[in-house]
Please model this.
Amino acid sequence: MVRLCRGDGGTLHVLPCVRKQCERKQISIALIVQRICRIARIGQVMSFEFRILMFGIGTALVIFVIIADISEVEEEIANSVLNAASTSLVTYRKSKVSSSPIPLAGINSKTSNSSSPEWTFNRTLTNLIRKNILRFLDAERDISILKSTFKPGDVIHYIFDRQSTTNISDNLYHLLPTVSPMKNQHYKQCAIVGNSGILLNSSCGREIDSHDFVIRCNLAPVEEYAIDVGLRTSLVTMNPSVVQRAFQDLNSEEWVQRFVHRLQSLSGSVLWIPAFMAKGGEERVEWAIRLILLHTVNVRTAFPSLRLLHAVRGYWLTNHVQIKRPTTGLLMYTMATRFCDEIHLYGFWPFAHDPDAKPVKYHYYDTLTYHYTSSASPHTMPLEFRTLSALHRQGALRLHTGPCKLPT
Model:
């Protein structure tokens, strides 16, 4: 308890500790009060104004110390909430594996091969990861903004460029879903298909298509690579840059028709367009939206919530995975934990060579090159891969990097 003196040196009132740990603060407060009271007694022979001034100074100092203590409590509460999201997972991981990153050599085509009997699904860990991720985001809600959230003309700040803005166009508003495309959805087995050249000659197409829900990235072509990557698509992402890279910015009628054909092949799938990440892609987003409406393409469009990317990054940072910006693949895995029991990853291989030292293309469908370890890259792909490898070894997901077993 802290006692404040009156102007005449007597006791004015009592302030309780904010919390038990604040007892150490009482020493500082007591010293302040003691000195103020001593001055106040001297001040009895001085003017009334002087005594009022000294009393005000003393009260202000005591309030300052108490507020500092309250701030410390609030900070500890905030930290405890954040740490709660990772404590269970981190504890689990430490009990099973070393806290240091899993070395690349720890996973190869033999141990990660879908035909290998060594992998066992860990339902307990999977449920724990799902529970912890839900503390940061809910994929059912965050997978898309809804029509009820905005109206045409509303201003949106870009996620990576807060100084720049765009407007909700009439066409974009028309394609906003009224309810989440993943509302009340749940699947036993899901496949997330990355675009690494490790898929070439894998014969994984039929196995990928056998999953209950298939997620693909960046509108990658499938028809001419079906034996290795499959055909089925439940959800596919489309960064605005895909229109430029894969469809030549729709600079001719031929490329427009190719783009429309690819969209039509989705046939009722979810088309996930991150339209509000960074300035520069708004024109391509509008092109795509206009063609979807013009050709009445049968897709369910989704536009991720403005908080999704930071929430995903926050989850992984809390679990000591120091990513810069999550890749599309990691975003999809993080969201899929919400509606998938068992998650299988294909085409995740951020290295220029396979485990047998053979060259691996960056994408299975083009000749684009990429410097995986460049500091200029917005992503940290090798680190993400090591993290996914660790989860594979613990049975939380299955990472396929070798040939698939052909059905007999």
